[in-house]
Structure formats: C-alpha cells, structure tokens
Write a structure and sequence with these properties.
Layout: E1 2-8, H1 16-23, E2 28-30, E3 37-45, H2 48-60, E4 66-76, E5 84-90, H3 92-104, E6 118-124, E7 142-145, E8 148-156, E9 159-168
Antiparallel strand pairs: 1-3, 1-8, 2-6, 4-5, 4-7, 5-6, 8-9
Length: about 170
C-alpha cells in the first residue's frame, strides 16, 4: 500500500476561502479540505508487516503540538512547469520533526535537498498554463498541527484518497 507520514491540519476549515478562490481557475483542481495535510516522509509501497513496524516507531516518537506561521503561496516545482500550488509554512520545528522521522525510519537524509514545510492546496490540470498567484488571496495566518499520522494513499481517477492508519498525539 502507498503510504506516508504526515500531519492533518487542525484548522483546515480556515482554508475554505482559499480553496474556493482556486476553484474559479479552470487550470486548477483544488485539494478537498479533508485531504489537507503536511507530508514529512513518503514511505512508498509497504506491506502489513512494514505498516506494523511504522506504527511501533510512531508510538515511540515524542513531539509537541505546533502552531506554525503561514509564509506564502507558491507553485512547485519552481523552475519547470508548475504542478502544484502550496501554502509554505514558517516553522523551524517541522524540519527537526522531518529529520527525526527520517532517522527513525532509516531514510538517508539528503542535506543538499532541504525540507520545505508546505501544504498542497491545488494541482494544475494537464497542459495548463500557470496562474498568477497575486490574484489569489491568502487569508490564513497560522496552521495548527496536533498529530503525526501514518496515512494510506489510494490513487483514483478523481484524485487521491487518504486514510489515517494510526495517529500519534503530542506529549
């Protein structure tokens, strides 16, 4: 099963106006509000045995709940044809959590590729031209993160479906 480690957005309802404004652009597929999350680590395809190991490792994780400042709205990747629109977060603790998870899950930490804490809010349709983000109002000042979860990701024609398999609460 495709899986990743991430945090659901506690105040996801604050994103409603942003997602609605993105829906007016025919080039963009806004992410459903219930799919908003921050990804720390993509685990790829794992079996049930590896899922159970991942849950045990998450159970040992210690972290505190965070309220992160919203920095900006941008497209990724920046240098080539953009594929997604993201809300970038300003929260140094998220890099620490990401690195701790990479160590916990024995993932090589690529120091040249820094972790960019972000929440994907829209995806460009195929063969679409980028929109001017200046026309999109970002009314969100902070994001609340209260859990770290193991997610199952199922790809469908109408988009991804995320299922929380296990969530760790802060200490």
């Amino acid at each position: 099963m495709r899986s990743f480690i991430g945090s659901p957005i506690e105040n996801s309802e604050d994103f409603s106006k942003l997602l609605e404004s993105l829906s007016f652009h025919r080039e963009i597929n806004p992410v459903p509000v219930n799919n908003l999350h921050l990804t720390y680590l993509f685990l790829s395809d794992i079996n049930d045995s590896k899922k159970n190991i991942a849950i045990k490792r998450l159970q040992q994780l210690k972290f505190r709940a965070l309220t992160c400042k919203v920095n900006s709205l941008k497209t990724l990747p920046e240098r080539s044809t953009p594929r997604v629109i993201v809300v970038v977060l300003d929260c140094p603790e998220l890099s620490d959590i990401s690195n701790a998870l990479k160590e916990t899950f024995s993932v090589n930490i690529n120091r040249t590729q820094s972790f960019l804490p972000h929440i994907t809010v829209g995806r460009y349709r195929k063969h679409s031209n980028p929109i001017s983000l200046e026309s999109v109002k970002l009314d969100i000042s902070a994001v609340k993160l209260r859990q770290i979860c193991l997610y199952k990701s199922t790809l469908t024609e109408s988009g991804s479906i995320y299922e929380k398999l296990y969530c760790k609460e802060p200490v």
